[in-house]
Design goal:
The structure holds two protein chains of two kinds.
Chain A: E1 9-16, H1 19-31, E2 37-40, H2 48-51, H3 58-84, H4 97-123, E3 147-152, H5 160-169, E4 174-179
Antiparallel strand pairs in A: 1-3, 1-4, 2-3
Helix pairs in contact in A: 3-4
Chain B: H1 14-42, H2 44-75, H3 78-92, H4 94-99, H5 102-106, H6 108-111, H7 117-122, H8 124-129, H9 135-166, H10 172-197, H11 210-232, H12 239-242, H13 245-276, H14 282-289, H15 291-313, H16 315-319, H17 321-343, H18 345-348, H19 357-377, H20 390-408
The chains are: A alpha+beta, B mainly alpha.
Chain lengths: 180, 420
């Protein structure tokens, strides 16, 4: 087949039976120099995020979210108890930090958690109504009992022929092109 | 990486290293005890107070290691197999700690107001508490705690040894169940021990959360000592074959959790008493929040909690043995500050002072403790020799760790050549 006649594809996808096989394959792909790839699995595979070179700034986002929550919680109580509606409770000072700590703690946790959830959704570009990986037959098993590794065509090292051969050398259960 | 699950043995440097540590401990013990003798002759009241501080500082290390041992038996993660020997040696120090309690029995009259019959006769509340707070029952309870802890601890170690030596996993279920019960019993009995030894220094005051503060602080102390030892022996086989950064990461996470738990419990006690603002509870804090005591109290917030918490947030710090060990040693210093803040104001009240015996006593007890501890560690393999879960645990942790290490750019194994 002449390469010029082939329509462009999203990438190549290999299917594995176990999480360990997937992790192993991903590490090899990473060692071979591939960077634009993604792994799909029904259960969390420990270490897979690092193996595909997944880097995220989300922890810093969560940290900032937590800080915002702490300032918000303390500020809200300060505003309510000192500025807007000051009340003398048992002779305590208006700005009684100890009693503000539990709420501040809770808003810190709340803001961190919300930042984590929505940050994850946004960074994952969800919702995505159409994604090419679903064009591969049998990919639905990624949510039950199969593990997939997709090397994307945007990878500088990607070569339809050589990448195919490389993935084949990993002895996957199945190997398929992912059409757009 | 050569990791042989069937023959886990020490390298030749382990025993000399333990002996060297033991010699240092004996030297510290000799100097410490000499100082204590001088102190006991010159100021016997101060001797007993300082000795109580030194004793509590170390007894909670033993109790803490015991509770971590029970925890490891219940959850059985890879991290636990690497520190099992360190924890077992800690459990073996429990009988020693019963013996080391003897000076406190001699000093009861100095330390505990409720032993004075004339005071109790005039004090209605102490009179009401007398059926519990009296010398005979105090000593009966003391013996009971140590018989209970040692009995459970030594029995669990016996079962584990049978598994390791006979390579027979049939008793795993029993260990797991008994360890879960043990954890519960440690918290319950530890609560009573905390009431007896520390809370009754101020016999009018009471706090029901005090016991868990004692036990969780002990787990923190015990873990800090364990981490220090683990990092010290990380270059020696078999540990060097099995220690991957992820195990330090797990140890760091546990240290982080216990630090937070300590802060959570400490603050819970404070906020309850502060909110209630009842005259029979607040004096305890009123003393500890004024003058230099207050400064130490604030110091605890920032140095015992905030600083280690912020450092241990970082995954990189937890994976770095040197940083982790430094935080653990820092934690041990903070444990002293916390206990000093809890115990010393009971006698000093609003006048702050620091006696040199307060340093000498923890050193003396610590020297004896460490020398005895090294004796328990001597002649044994540094980690679990055999366990049906061992291979599986490292299989899983190993895969994840290789990927982790590539990501963080640190070595998947502890490098060779750091013996000594």
């Amino acid at each position: 087949m002449e390469p010029a006649t082939q329509p462009p594809i999203y990438g190549l996808m290999a299917e594995f039976a176990t999480g360990e096989a997937l992790l192993d394959a991903t590490q090899r792909a990473s060692n071979a120099g591939y960077r634009q790839m993604d792994a799909y699995s029904p259960v969390p595979v420990e270490g897979i995020a690092e193996a595909i070179g997944f880097k995220t700034k989300l922890p810093w986002g969560v940290f900032c979210g937590g800080l915002t929550g702490a300032v918000f919680g303390m500020g809200l109580q300060y505003w309510a108890s000192v500025i807007y509606y000051p009340m003398n409770i048992g002779g305590r000072p208006m700005f009684s930090i100890p009693s503000f700590i539990p709420v501040t703690f809770e808003t810190t946790v709340l803001f961190s958690a919300l930042t984590a959830v929505f940050g994850m959704i946004i960074l994952n570009k969800l919702p995505t109504p159409y994604h090419p990986v679903f064009n591969v037959q049998g990919f639905d098993r990624a949510s039950t009992d199969r593990y997939f590794l997709a090397i994307e065509a945007t990878d500088p090292k990607f070569n339809r022929q050589r990448t195919w051969e490389f993935l084949e050398s990993l002895k996957p259960e199945n190997l398929a092109e992912v059409p757009h | 990486m050569a990791r042989n699950f069937n023959t886990i043995v020490n390298d030749e440097n382990v025993q000399p290293k333990i002996s060297g540590l033991q010699k240092k401990a004996i030297a510290v013990a000799v100097v410490g005890v000499a100082l204590l003798v001088v102190g006991a002759i010159s100021d016997s009241d101060q001797f007993y107070r300082s000795y109580l501080l030194g004793y509590i500082y170390w007894v909670i290390v033993s109790i803490g290691m015991f509770s971590l041992y029970a925890l490891h038996n219940v959850v059985s993660g890879a991290w636990g197999f690497t520190i099992r020997r360190f924890l077992e040696a800690g459990v073996r120090t429990l009988p020693l700690m019963l013996v080391l309690f003897v000076p406190i029995i001699f000093g009861m009259h100095t330390l505990y107001e409720w032993t004075h019959t004339d005071v109790v006769a005039k004090d209605h509340i102490l009179h009401q508490k007398a059926p519990y707070l009296n010398e005979t029952f105090f000593i009966i309870r003391l013996v009971f705690y140590f018989v209970l802890w040692s009995g459970l601890g030594f029995y669990l170690m016996k079962l584990n040894r049978q598994i390791e030596e006979n390579r027979d996993p049939s008793k795993l279920g029993r260990i797991q169940k008994l360890s879960a019960v043990t954890l519960l019993l440690i918290i319950l009995s530890g609560t009573f021990a905390a009431v007896d030894w520390m809370m009754s220094l101020e016999p009018h005051w009471f706090s029901t959360i005090y016991g868990i503060l004692f036990v969780s602080g002990g787990a923190l102390s015990g873990l800090a000592v364990t981490i220090w030892l683990l990092v010290k022996f990380r270059g020696n086989r078999p540990l060097s074959d099995f220690l991957v950064p992820r195990i330090f990461h797990d140890m760091g996470t546990l240290l982080f959790t216990l630090t937070m738990f300590w802060a959570y419990i400490s603050f819970s006690q404070f906020i309850i008493i502060w909110s209630g603002n009842v005259a029979e509870e607040t004096p305890w804090y009123a003393v500890r929040m004024a003058n230099e005591w207050g400064t130490i109290g604030w110091g605890l917030v920032f140095l015992h909690f905030a600083l280690p918490w912020a450092i241990l947030l970082s995954k990189k710090a937890k994976r770095n043995p040197q940083i982790l060990s430094a935080v653990a040693i820092w934690m041990l210093a903070m444990r002293f500050m916390d206990l000093y803040w809890l115990i010393a104001p009971a006698h000093l009240r609003s006048t702050f002072s620091f006696h040199w015996l307060d340093i000498a006593a923890p050193l003396a007890v610590g020297g004896i403790w460490m020398a005895y501890y090294c004796q328990q560690l001597q002649g044994k393999t540094l980690m679990t020799v055999w366990d049906p879960r061992l291979q599986d645990a490292w299989h899983r942790i190993g895969n994840a760790d290789a990927a982790d290490s590539a990501y963080f750019g640190d070595s998947p194994t502890v490098k060779e050549g750091i013996h000594g």
